[in-house]
Amino acid sequence: MGRRTPLYSYHSEHAHLDSFAGFDMPIWYDGIMQEVMAVREDAGLFDISHMGRAIFRGADSGKYLDILTTNEISSLEPLQAKYTLMCDERGGILDDMIVCRLGEDSFMVVWNAANSEKNFRWAGVHKWEWDVEVELLTERSFMLAVQGPSAQRVLQPLCDAEIGGIKRFRGVNCRVSGTECLVTRTGYTGEDGFEIISNDAGKAEKVWAGILSAGAVPAGLGARDVLRLEAGLPLYGHDINEEHNPFEARLEFAVRLEKPEFIGKDALVGIARGGVEFKRTGIRMADRGIPREGFKISSGGKEIGRVTSGTYSPTVKAGIAMGYLKGALPCGTEASVDIRGREGRGIISDTPFYDETKFGFKRRVPA
Amino acid sequence: MPESIVVGSSVIKTGLCYAKTHEWINLDESPSTVGISDYAQKTLHDLVYAELPKVGQLIKMGTTLCTLESIKAVAEVYAPVDGVVKEINTDLSDRPELINKDPYGAGWLVKLEVKGENSLLLKPEQYAEIVKNLK
Question: Which residues have CB under 8 Å from A40's CB, separation 6+?
Answer without folding.
Answer: A148, A149, A191, A227, A315, A354, A359
